[in-house]
Write a structure and sequence with these properties.
Strand content: 25-35%
CATH class: Alpha Beta
CATH topology: Heat Shock Protein 90
Number of helices: 3
Structural class: alpha+beta
CATH superfamily: Histidine kinase-like ATPase, C-terminal domain
Strand order of the largest sheet: 1-2-3-5-4-6
CATH architecture: 2-Layer Sandwich
Number of strands: 6
Number of domains: 1
Distance between the termini: 38 Å
């Protein structure tokens, strides 16, 4: 949509339906980074969003046993919202993740998301969905609050 006097600038969402295949991750990261850059998201905030979306997609690939994953990211003037949803088996989510031990392998995805985003919500019903957002106001280059706001099963 064209912006001009009296015409609102419409924000377009980044949407992808992906196979559960790790080979798509590199392309998705690059395209998402381009989308966020085109929507004037600060570089540090964009890097955080790309990493967290990548972690959520990776979790779906590793654990969902479903047929695919849907990714939606919307960059606004004050925040970025992202949702990664699969239609797999879901998982038991018990809330805020503790910091993983440096000696363990895996198990860092939700912790990373909670650390970098301002809000992370996990829904487990007919698959799993992770919704997250990052504030872009004056403090866009700082890490998120690490809060998990909602949990539904």
């Amino acid at each position: 949509m064209i912006a001009g006097p009296g015409i609102a600038r419409r924000r377009v969402s980044f949407r992808r339906r992906l196979p559960l295949d790790a080979s798509v991750l590199c392309d998705v990261r690059a395209r998402l980074r381009d989308y966020l850059c085109q929507h004037d998201v600060p570089e540090r905030a964009a890097a955080d969003v790309v990493l967290c979306v990548d972690e959520a997609i990776t979790n779906a690939i590793r654990y969902s046993r479903g047929r695919g994953v849907d990714v939606t990211v919307r960059a606004g003037s004050r925040s970025v919202r992202a949702r990664v949803r699969d239609k797999g088996t879901g998982f038991l989510h018990t809330g805020l993740r503790a910091r993983p031990s440096p000696w363990t392998t895996g198990g860092r995805g939700l912790y990373i998301m909670q650390s970098l985003m301002d809000d992370v919500s996990v829904y487990c019903s007919r698959g799993a969905a992770v919704s997250m957002w990052k504030r872009l106001d004056g403090n866009a280059d700082s890490a998120g609050s690490g809060q998990v706001d909602q949990y539904r099963q």
